[in-house]
Amino acid sequence: MPDVDAAPGSEESRAAVYTTLAAGQDLRTELEIKRSRFITVLRRTETEAAARDLVAGLRREFHDARHHCSAFILGPDRSVQRSNDDGEPSGTAGIPMLEALSRRETTPGVTDLSDVTAVVVRYFGGILLGAGGLVRAYSESVSTALDAAPLVHRTRLRICAAEVPHAQAGRLENELRSAGFVMADTSYGAQSTVLRLALPDAPDTISAAADRLLSLTAGATVLMPEGTEWVDVPIS
98: closest CA among 78, 83, 112, 120? Predict the structure, then answer.
């Protein structure tokens, strides 16, 4: 069947922070239900093109499988939600998969998972599962994969930069991390290193970080606010 759009839901927009998969390799799990194999692949995706690339790649890899069902949620506010039954009876695969993603509580009472695509590859085992059995199988496949998935908070933060001598950069970065600050990308020039801190966009927080850096460098380094970026923050 064609892709099915799902309403984003009525929950408050989470444009400043949401939960997603940790960056890295695809996560794969497998269930066997009444001789059918259900291979689930989760990938962090930020665009529809990336989500569809995952589906296309798995169609090539598992070219002899009967079904390659998919669901994805994209965007900080989870505004893009799609699902596809790929030949299974209407509503028995893609929508249960999408609901497993959209209803996933990343912390108690919070359902904010986004920028994630799930594909379930099914090898038919010869035993019909029925509509209810298929719904449970596809939902369980995605839920089981999510149980094993490493998650991070994707947060919109203010980037503040500090130019420091190369010889001090490693020590200062370790000191700042130890103090609980989140570090963004570091860059290296011919004469100096630019450390970047990712901070909540609040004047008191930025001021506290600037004071800490001044203390660590005996007043020699000034923290300069830059733009904002989406930054992965580990879930404590």
Answer: 83
In tens, the pLDDT along 17-47 reads 999 999 888 999 999 999 999 999 999 999 9
Please check whether residue 210 is in contact with residue 198, taking contact to mean a CB–CB distance below 8 angstroms. no
Q: Does domain 4-149 have CATH number 1.10.10.10?
A: no
Core vs surface per residue 44-82: b (16+ CB within 10 A) or e: bbeeeeebbebbeebeeebeebebbbbbbbbbbbbebbb
Q: Are the beta carbons of 194 and 165 closer than 8 angstroms? A: no
DSSP structure string for 45-108: -SSHHHHHHHHHHHHHHTTT-SEEEEEEEESTT--EEEEE-TTSSTTSSHHHHHHHHHT--SBT
Can you give the residue ranges of every domain in the chain?
4-149, 155-234
Lowest mean pLDDT among 16-20, 65-69, 95-99, 140-144: 16-20
CATH assignment of 155-234, given 1.20.120.450, 3.30.70.240, 3.30.70.141, 3.90.870.10? Answer: 3.30.70.240
State mean pLDDT over 193-200.
Answer: 94
| pLDDT tens digit sequence for 68-91 | 999 999 999 999 999 999 999 999
